[in-house]
Amino acid sequence: MDQKHFFATTAKGLEDILAEEFMQLGIAVTSVEKGGVRFLGDTAAWYRANLWLRTAQRILMPIAEFSCTTPKQLYDGVRSVNWPAHLTPDMTFAVDGKLRDSALTHSGFVALKTKDAIADAMRDCCDRRPNVDTRDPDLRVNVHLFRNHCTVSLDTSGTGLDRRGYRMDTGEAPLRETLAAALVYLSGWDGKVPLVDPMCGSGTIPIEASLMASRRPPGLMRERYGFHRWPGFDRPLWSKLVREAKEQVAPNIPGAVFGQDVSARAIANACENSKKAGVDALVTFKKGDMLELTPPSPPGILVFNPPYGVRLGEIEVLQLLYKKIGDVLKQRCTGYTAYLLTGNPELSKWIGLKAARRVVLFNGPIECRLLKYELY
Q: How many angstroms separate the CA atoms of 169 and 268, rounded?
């Protein structure tokens, strides 16, 4: 099969983890860049990337690149693409525009101009213009302008890859599935010792840990991807890759996975989400206060994301909470290694423990720190 270049996007700070995932899949990485990883592969490679990657947001397929400083250059460059190879008049499409440090400064205008160029090109070739559907298009086009260089890509994923399909009720402060998977990666958990999330909310961290340990691709839960509706979609190849992935799933894992939360509703949601994810037999959820945590015998790993003042509670209340978290870690979790994600570095001082490691991550637009504590 023909080899093509692709760009897998990810959250800031997760680029090296994503590159490691590609290595594990045996897919050739050509460069690691801010916001993602470039890779080279055939159709099977980018199908597998969508199916298996845990920290990627989208898999983009570049189809055109050109210099662009004016609306006319943008229009002409987009219109020159062979759109009938990717789109039919009966399909719907949408355009996402992103730009930085360029002469064109309005992303909405860039998206609109791109849409007009695509529609006009299709009308010239097919005498009909395809309709635009911003909510659920058959083809999503990504236009990226950086320093007056325009890249036009097809979004192979459609809906973002963080939308696994198992999480229904996210609670008050949801953690993206991709970031939750990254936290488990960074913890170094190998699936052989207990992993505990004492403030699990809707269960995202324990569920992602269970998916990883059981070698279950996160994409198995999704009903469809963007490329499923493209001309030339190779359904037999996709079915073969899905079948092979299912055959690799381990029914059991050596290490236990636990999730605990003070909210009964959160635990009910977590149980339902784990069932949808197919890992309800691998993870145990229970209602309980973090301050009464009794983890299994060490060694083990704690991974959790306590509130940090974005939407939940006042700062004074959270200071007291973090102090109590520190007390629990020191008194009840000896022999464990704890990984705590916080978006408020000032709050972490109230834990009263010296972090052995600090990793900068982003939860959406919020700059966070993943703090590692060795609890001797």
A: 10
